[in-house]
């Protein structure tokens, strides 16, 4: 990840216990935090993205078939992380899903991403959401792909953002295959999946101090408790927050002692 280039209680103001909504069908449908899944550490994520870029460089240097696909997949993985997308959401993106954001004119047409195929609850259509672009370095990566790489697939009239060398839309199975090959090649643990990129987006945004409600809306969680369970912040971050909480508590105790 190149530089430049979390809260509210789950029960809200209803007076219910923080875990109360965990028993609802809707919440169980919304929850995605299967036990085997976890986010990347920042070091693992850097290693993974570096390897993606290395595969592109190697393919270009050798002038072998597959360079376009390697570039596409490297960019796709960065987009899944950069906008906190599910794998299927990413695969179904079209070129027209990127929009300008008046609050971020410097990002051009990539300031906002409309996700039209969000995860649906049973009996309901896919849930749409708009996701603000918050990582300029990923914006640069996708813009470069759109301008310089995608046209080389030779199917300009296709709406899909991610194209195959046969001129179709990239499918989730193909994303899984490439991710697994890269993960295993650099010795990352098997519990990391493409969905771990979405986990990592949530975790790293919370660690960096982004408002949890904003993160919740960005990734399309109905419940704050989903985002809280879904998030796994690093030990360093937890220790820092614990230290700050303890320092505040000791300061309050000292102030109360002074007024006694």
Automatic annotation (TrEMBL):
Domain Tyr recombinase: 35-243
Compartment annotation: Cytoplasm
Protein's UniProt keywords contain Glycosyltransferase: no
Keywords carried by this UniProt record: DNA integration, DNA recombination
Signal sequence bounds: none
InterPro entries in UniProt: DNA_brk_join_enz, Integrase-like_cat_sf, Integrase_catalytic, Tyrosine_recombinase_XerCD
Taxonomy, superkingdom: Bacteria
PANTHER family reported for this sequence: PHAGE INTEGRASE-RELATED, TYROSINE RECOMBINASE XERC
Name the UniProt record assigns to this protein: Tyrosine-type recombinase/integrase
């Amino acid at each position: 990840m190149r530089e430049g280039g979390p809260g509210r209680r789950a029960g809200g103001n209803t007076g219910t216990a923080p875990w109360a909504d965990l028993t609802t069908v809707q919440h169980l449908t919304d929850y995605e935090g299967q036990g085997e899944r976890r986010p990347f550490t920042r070091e693992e994520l850097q290693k993974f993205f570096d390897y993606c870029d290395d595969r592109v460089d190697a393919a270009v240097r050798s002038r072998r078939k597959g360079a376009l696909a390697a570039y596409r997949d490297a960019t796709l993985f960065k987009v899944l992380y950069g906008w906190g997308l599910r794998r299927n959401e990413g695969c179904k993106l079209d070129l027209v899903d990127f929009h300008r954001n008046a609050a971020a004119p410097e990002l051009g047409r990539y300031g906002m991403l409309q996700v039209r195929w969000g995860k649906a609850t049973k009996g309901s259509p896919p849930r749409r959401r708009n996701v603000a672009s918050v990582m300029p370095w990923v914006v640069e990566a996708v813009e470069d792909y759109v301008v310089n790489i995608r046209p080389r697939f030779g199917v300009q009239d296709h709406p899909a953002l991610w194209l195959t060398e046969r001129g179709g839309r990239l499918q989730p199975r193909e994303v899984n295959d490439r991710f697994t090959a890269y993960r295993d090649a650099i010795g990352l643990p098997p519990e990391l999946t493409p969905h771990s990129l979405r986990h990592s987006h949530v975790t790293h945004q919370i660690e960096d101090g982004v408002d949890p409600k904003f993160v919740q809306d960005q990734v399309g969680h109905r419940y704050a408790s989903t985002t809280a369970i879904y998030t796994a912040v690093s030990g360093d971050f937890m220790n820092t927050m614990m230290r700050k909480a303890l320092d505040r508590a000791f300061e309050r105790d000292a102030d109360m002692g002074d007024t006694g």
